[in-house]
Amino acid sequence: MKSPFLTLNSRDFIKGLFVAVLTAIVTFMYTSLQNGSLTFDWKAIGMAALSSALAYIMKNLLTNSSDQLLATEKKMSSDESI
Questions:
Q1: Is the pLDDT score of 20 beyond 80?
Q2: pTM, entire model
Q3: In this structure, how many other beta carbons lie within 10 angstroms of the beta carbon of residue 52?
């Protein structure tokens, strides 16, 4: 289940970690291709990974369970309840 507006669940953090790891890999590949050798720019890799993870977490925090940005949850009427 997706988390409601202004809340996070454990899946949000796991997905944020996954995004951070993928960003670190892409940043490593990019800097290596630019330099022409396998070099580790730990500062660039770390900053890119941290920035992407925080951006993903913020995006999930500011969307509701219907993926609407900055919108609160819709109230269900008695007719729509399960």
A1: yes
A2: 0.75
A3: 19
